[in-house]
């Protein structure tokens, strides 16, 4: 977009020869090659992605794609003219007429196919929501987004010309152009990252920090000494944060567990420390572990170190399943590291998650390793989304996970997870990225549904087990900046069970499609996208290997931890 005038003359419309033309120039002037590029990428933006999209979201993706296509069209025309060694020529009216007719036909076909593909995705996932008004609004949103981005590009171009003119008073013309582009690009990046992005993050942090002072409806301060914030706790109730209070007061009671297992059950222990507990992550972890020890967590048979996601949230299904299958003889410890919701933390709080996962496990392991071997609980680790990223950072690889834990469950791992990428990138020959096999599955395994098995089924899975849960339709797992220019294996290979075969990789377009999926990754039914609930039952059954539970028992438990399952 901003490139077009910097590349001298591109054919523009309308011509500036008469009074009507001068009136039309109040609107953005467009080039024919740019318009064809915009039309092509706008149509391709309707191809399916991982999750169902509403009309407004589709309009946003379409507008962004069109703006990228416009810029690519301008650049392609400039390069072609350079090789042809000719000047730009004004296009004939017939050329614009062909564009208009082509736009109506191609965009209409793409829009119709897009609706069909979205219907197919909704059927795959059991999504029933559909808003006709938002669908109709799609083209209008796309045009608005395209124009805003075009105007932003034109603004940068004008700033470049102004900077080049000023610099040209002191240095040569060519040098002024180069330095001008560098200055404008640097200023734009500084404004985006320093003012817009950081300002947005800081404002969001302030807003969600206020929300963190609230207590969810129905949550009350525990009356049990086995919970943080309860009687005798070393962590004050008010310091736990919104999600910490929900975690401390939540979960099944001994009676509820006993009713399921038909045995005498214990009351589970839950320890937690919120951001207000301490400003330092290491100290916060130490406080949580001290409260865990006070409550008797190190005397239980099963001990779970849980790295939270985003604002300190712990998926109830993950811990509830652990406690039910452990017959209540279980303790869980977690800490908060951010005020932001999960999808925002995923983008900006990676370092905080890393510190939280490492410091919490190290603090637990320091106490645990000093206990007599015959009196140590079985030590498990778990994390979902950014929590899996934080949980991984405490370990150097497969052997470390095997040697220092009794088992691990990581759900929906982000694509940038260090160990996840190591295991996936070095998978055994013949296995696919959506369900890789690492070293014949001797320790680490992957599945989208543990109820159907964890391949390779014909290989032994002895000793401590590490299990990754990842849905083929989970954008958290598959999003990467590399999507813009590189086709990943998971798209080129056989698609997953809840991904359409019609999904293909398109430069730039696929990146924005999957990026737009991120905020809505949990807005789909359980078993799809970034929603892992019922899967935890079979996952913990595989990792903990409890005795006495039938397939019927596990199905009953799935109905308890995921009522809509």
TrEMBL record:
Alpha/beta-hydrolase N-terminal domain location: 46-252
Residues covered by the Alpha/beta-hydrolase catalytic domain: 269-557
Membrane-traversing stretches: 30-51, 57-84, 96-118, 130-152, 178-201
InterPro entries cross-referenced by the UniProt entry: Alpha/beta-hydrolase_catalytic, Alpha/beta-hydrolase_N_dom
Keyword Nucleotidyltransferase tagged: no
Region (Disordered): 1-20
Highest taxon listed in the record's lineage: Bacteria
Pfam families per record: Abhydrolase_9, Abhydrolase_9_N
Sorted UniProt keywords: Membrane, Transmembrane, Transmembrane helix
Protein name, per record: Alpha/beta-hydrolase family protein
Organism, as annotated: Streptomyces nojiriensis
Organism lineage: Bacteria, Bacillati, Actinomycetota, Actinomycetes, Kitasatosporales
């Amino acid at each position: 977009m901003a490139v077009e005038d910097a590349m001298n003359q591109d054919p523009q419309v309308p011509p500036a020869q008469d009074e009507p033309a001068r009136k039309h120039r109040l609107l953005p002037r467009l080039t024919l090659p740019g318009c064809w590029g915009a039309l092509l990428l706008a149509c391709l933006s309707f191809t399916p992605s991982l999750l169902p999209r509403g009309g407004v979201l589709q309009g946003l993706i379409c507008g962004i794609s069109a703006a990228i296509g416009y810029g690519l069209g301008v650049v392609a025309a400039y390069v072609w003219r350079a090789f042809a060694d000719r000047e730009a020529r004004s296009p004939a009216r017939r050329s614009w007429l062909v564009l208009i007719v082509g736009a109506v036909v191609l965009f209409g076909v793409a829009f119709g196919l897009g609706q069909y593909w979205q219907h197919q995705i909704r059927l795959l996932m059991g999504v029933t929501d559909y808003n006709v008004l938002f669908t109709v609004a799609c083209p209008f949103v796309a045009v608005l987004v395209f124009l805003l981005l075009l105007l932003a590009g034109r603004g940068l171009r004008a700033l470049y010309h102004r900077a080049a003119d000023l610099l040209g008073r002191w240095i040569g013309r060519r040098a002024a152009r180069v330095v001008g582009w560098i200055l404008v690009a640097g200023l734009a990046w500084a404004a985006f990252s320093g003012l817009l992005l950081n300002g947005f993050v800081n404002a969001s942090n302030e807003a969600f920090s206020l929300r963190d002072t609230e207590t969810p409806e129905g949550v009350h301060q525990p009356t049990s000494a086995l919970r943080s914030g309860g009687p005798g706790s070393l962590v004050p109730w008010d310091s736990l944060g919104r999600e910490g209070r929900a975690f401390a007061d939540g979960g099944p009671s001994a009676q509820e567990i006993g009713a399921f297992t038909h045995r005498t059950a214990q009351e589970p222990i839950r320890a937690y420390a919120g951001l207000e507990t301490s400003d330092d992550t290491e100290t916060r972890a130490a406080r949580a572990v001290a409260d865990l020890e006070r409550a008797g967590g190190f005397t239980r048979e099963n001990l779970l170190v849980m790295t939270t996601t985003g604002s300190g949230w712990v998926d109830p299904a993950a811990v509830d399943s652990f406690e039910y299958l452990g017959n209540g003889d279980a303790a869980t410890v977690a800490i908060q590291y951010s005020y932001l919701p999960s999808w925002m933390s995923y983008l900006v709080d990676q370092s905080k998650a890393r510190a939280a996962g490492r410091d919490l496990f190290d603090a637990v392991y320091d106490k645990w390793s000093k206990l007599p071997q015959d009196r140590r609980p079985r030590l498990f680790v778990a994390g979902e989304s950014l929590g899996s990223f934080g949980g991984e950072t405490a370990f150097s690889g497969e052997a470390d996970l095997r040697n220092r834990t009794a088992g691990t469950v990581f759900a929906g791992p982000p694509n940038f997870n260090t160990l996840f990428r190591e295991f996936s990138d070095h998978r055994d020959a013949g296995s696919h990225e959506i369900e890789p096999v690492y070293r014949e599955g001797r320790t680490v395994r992957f599945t989208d549904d543990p109820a159907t098995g964890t391949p390779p089924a014909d290989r032994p899975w002895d000793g401590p087990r590490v299990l990754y849960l990842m849905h083929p339709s989970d954008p958290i797992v598959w999003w990467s900046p590399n999507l813009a220019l590189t086709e990943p294996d998971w798209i080129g290979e056989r698609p997953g069970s809840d991904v359409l075969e019609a999904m293909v990789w398109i430069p730039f377009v696929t990146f924005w499609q999957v990026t737009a999926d991120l905020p809505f990754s949990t807005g789909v039914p359980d078993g799809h996208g970034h929603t892992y609930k019922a899967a935890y039952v079979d996952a913990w059954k595989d990792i903990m290997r409890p005795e006495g539970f039938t397939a019927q028992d596990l199905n009953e438990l799935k109905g308890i931890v995921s009522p809509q399952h």
